[in-house]
Write a structure and sequence with these properties.
By secondary structure, the chain is an alpha/beta fold. It is 44% helix and 16% strand. Strands 10-11-12-9-8-13-14 form a seven-stranded mixed β-sheet, sandwiched between helices. It has a five-stranded parallel β-sheet with strand order 5-4-3-6-7, with helices on both faces. Strands 1-2-15 form a three-stranded antiparallel β-sheet, with no helix packed on it. β13, α14 and β14 form a beta-alpha-beta unit. α3 runs antiparallel to α6. One of its GO terms (molecular function) is oxidoreductase activity, acting on the aldehyde or oxo group of donors, NAD or NADP as acceptor.
């Protein structure tokens, strides 16, 4: 271990110790206390919004309009979880009165309660400097559940992470709460991340990022002497199936909409549609030409990090070796030029290289011969955050097959619109089968996200003071 590593690990020890010291107090905090913190954080974020957005734009290049929208989403989430807390969602109990007699009819008095897991290590995402970072959805949901949060800042926006954390720490102090309720680790090394995940004081991990990085940390969490839950959102190629019936109505409009979704944020969205599935038909052929025409001239901005652009170029080059490029990309301007490739369903199913995520402004068009082949294609994807079905509006056996297959591999199935843009609400599901996430029964967006950080406990014949 180097001296630098030793210092970083020592700092992590100190930060986690503060979180551990605050865990019981925060787990037992009243709804009003938790809600006040969440709303205070939202207010503080909005009060410093212009300065924070300027820092975020300088570090990420995402643009003020996008970043202002992200601040609004972050504040909305914080206040939304405050409302959930006030509705006693994390405090819900299920009670069964005692029944005299022997089992199975007889039983003792039981109460099923929820208990906070403990300190959560939250790994910030690169592509959402606000909404999936220091005060993002993972932090908000964990705090609402009664868990202290140890934020692992992302190296792509270090100055912003420090600035947001400082305003959050001030709110914690002003409300008279323990310092360990919300803390920050700034170590940018992989070793530091692994050390945090494996720290005995950490009770759960929330991660949003790459498949490679997430898988490594997930394995580290499971290699602990006492493994802990790892809620990871990893990679996703988000297939979009456009049936001829939908294309016959407005193929040009759909092409423009899809081109905008593929290139939104320079393609740096976990829900960006990366695979466009079509049935062989004249409508599909026209749509491909219109999509290529719509996407080719779109100007992108710089990617979040040089490493991210290198990864995008590498993935796009791999796909280019196994598929046909539909146009020659224009020379780079501020950001990488959009790419569009084409292949057939049989090749896509047989060749894993074609199923690689291109995290950037690119997509692969796949043409299938039949609905059965589309179903086989979805099964080959294995797991994805979203699947979009354009044209499956009428009842038919083919559409039933598509819906069944889409639900089998996806966390969210869309029948209109595009998958970029994830609403924060009660019905949302953001998480799908592996490799899109490590815990497909949970969501990282929406109010059900706080359920990840609660563990049910059955209390039998408990005195009144224990039940609260």
């Amino acid at each position: 271990m180097t001296k630098q590593q030793d210092q970083a690990f020592s700092n992590i020890d100190k930060v986690v110790a503060k979180a551990v010291a605050a865990a019981d107090c925060w787990a037992e905090s009243a709804p009003g206390v938790r809600a006040a913190l969440l709303r205070g954080l939202a207010d503080a974020l909005e009060q410093q919004q212009p300065e924070l957005v300027a820092i975020a734009d300088r570090e990420s290049g995402l643009g003020e309009a996008r970043l202002n929208g992200e601040v609004a989403r972050t504040a909305f989430q914080l206040r939304g979880f405050a409302t959930e807390v006030e509705a006693h969602v994390p405090y819900q109990q299920v009670k069964d009165d005692a029944v005299a007699g022997a089992p199975p009819a007889g039983r003792p008095r039981l109460a099923r309660v929820q208990r906070a897991l403990g300190p959560v290590a939250m790994f910030s995402a690169s592509n959402f400097p606000f909404a999936f970072s220091v005060l993002g959805g993972d932090t908000a949901s964990a705090l609402a559940a009664g868990c202290p949060v140890v934020v692992k800042a992302h190296s792509g926006h270090p100055e912003l992470s420090t600035a947001v954390f400082e305003l959050a720490a001030r709110v914690v102090r002003e409300q008279g709460l323990p310092e360990g309720v919300l803390t920050l680790v700034e170590s940018a090394s992989r070793a530091g991340g692994t050390y945090l995940v494996q720290h005995p004081g950490i009770a759960a991990v929330a991660f949003t990022g790459s498949y490679q990085g997430g898988k490594a940390l997930w394995q580290a969490a499971n290699e602990r002497p006492r493994p802990v839950p790892f809620f990871g959102e990893l990679g996703s190629i988000n297939p979009l199936i456009a049936l001829p019936s939908a294309l016959a109505q407005d193929s040009e409009g759909l092409a423009k909409t899809l081109a905008g979704s593929i290139t939104l944020g320079c393609g740096q969205f976990c829900t960006s549609p990366g695979v466009i599935v079509l049935l062989d038909s004249p409508h599909s052929q026209q749509f491909v030409a219109q999509l290529a025409e719509a996407i080719k001239p779109i100007a992108t901005h710089r990617m979040l990090t040089a490493g991210m652009q290198k990864g995008f170029e590498s993935a796009a080059n791999v796909v280019a070796e196994h598929a046909q490029a539909l146009f020659e990309p224009a020379p780079d301007s501020a950001g990488p030029a959009p790419r569009l490739f084409a292949t057939d369903a049989a090749s896509f199913i047989a060749n894993a290289h074609l199923r690689e995520e291109m995290f950037g402004p690119a997509a692969l068009v796949v043409t299938a011969d039949s609905i059965e082949q589309v179903v086989a294609l979805l099964d080959a994807v294995g797991g994805t955050l979203t699947t979009t079905l354009w044209g499956a509006d009428d009842v038919s056996e083919d559409n039933r097959k598509l819906v069944r297959a889409a639900q089998r591999v996806s966390g969210r199935v869309l029948f209109a619109g595009v998958p970029t843009g994830v609403a924060v609400c009660h019905a949302q599901q953001h998480g799908g089968p592996w490799p899109s996430s490590t815990a497909p029964q949970t969501t990282s967006v929406g109010y059900a996200a706080l359920e990840r950080f609660l563990r049910p406990v059955a209390l039998q014949d408990a005195p009144a003071w224990v039940l609260g």
